[in-house]
């Protein structure tokens, strides 16, 4: 696995929009304020031509233009890292025009984004053996003030941090709007982890120092995007998991548009494709359909039908994904996950 150089002090942050850009509110104002904050911190800015574009379908511009921007800015010496402007719907069409052979030959560069950006973060690892950061997109850095998860993500880029911890609470309903574009996360819900080994629940008595630990190489992203990639010419997951089988894998997974049955189908599909070979554990983020139940199936049973057969730790309702905050994770890194009581810690090594 190849790891990029860290963002240096007073370095230059590049911004690209291979998925949605920041053409509308509240993202436009959020992105503008993020740029102001980064500039005040002493960093230069390098904006791609699609950052404010809105002429595409589900992405900022045409797939060809989005891919051209992505490759140019990844290879460019004018910026030191890249932050994606946002998620979206059809970044899969962008990657049809991305030359991953060219990306593979380039000097590794940190790329930060989540959701639809799985199309880049996942493929950087599995196709190019390059690490990236699965975490917040550019407009989120415009919130006032930053949530600790934003600090964590930025400190991963600068190399000041390699360990992240779960956060005390999470946001069920956002206060961000066109009229209030810089609103911080509306944290009202307490984080409660659901922990299993196989299908057996794990509980801890109060004030007892018992813990659950496992380690492996971090891989994963948004399940909506992952199953869309599965079986395409971009799917080299089986080769990847065999290449790093001695390390084993921690799969981190979260979902956006999937209902509980779609989550169960996605888990089945990834298992049948051989993706979960050599798995050492699962980190499952709160799905956007949090609390949904259909025909007696909830999100926990949807995951455990497959993950529970592996007889490995399965940690659910983790701070990942579309119900913020999210722990930023370095895709491709070797990680040690520690769980104790209701707490979670992910320590990442770059080797």
Describe the structure.
The chain is an alpha/beta fold and 351 residues long. The chain contains 10 helices and 19 strands. A 9-stranded mixed sheet has the order 6-19-18-11-12-13-16-9-10. Strand 14 (293-294) and strand 15 (297-298) form a beta hairpin. The longest helix is centred in the first third of the chain and has 14 residues, at 27-40. The chain is globular. It starts with 11 loop residues before the first strand and ends with a strand. The model has no long low-confidence stretch (mean pLDDT 96).
> Radius of gyration over alpha carbons?
19 Å
Percent of residues in helical segments? Answer: 25-40%
Number of helices: 10
Strand order of the largest sheet: 6-19-18-11-12-13-16-9-10
Q: Termini distance?
A: 7 Å
Pick out the low-confidence regions.
none
Derived structural class:
alpha/beta
Q: How much β-strand is present in the residues?
A: 15-25%
Please provide the ordered H/E string of secondary-structure elements.
EHEHEHHEHEHEEEEEEHHEHEEEHEEEE
Q: pLDDT average, as an integer?
A: 96
- Would you count the extended β strands for me? 19
Please summarize the sheet with the most strands.
9 strands, mixed
What is the general shape? Answer: globular
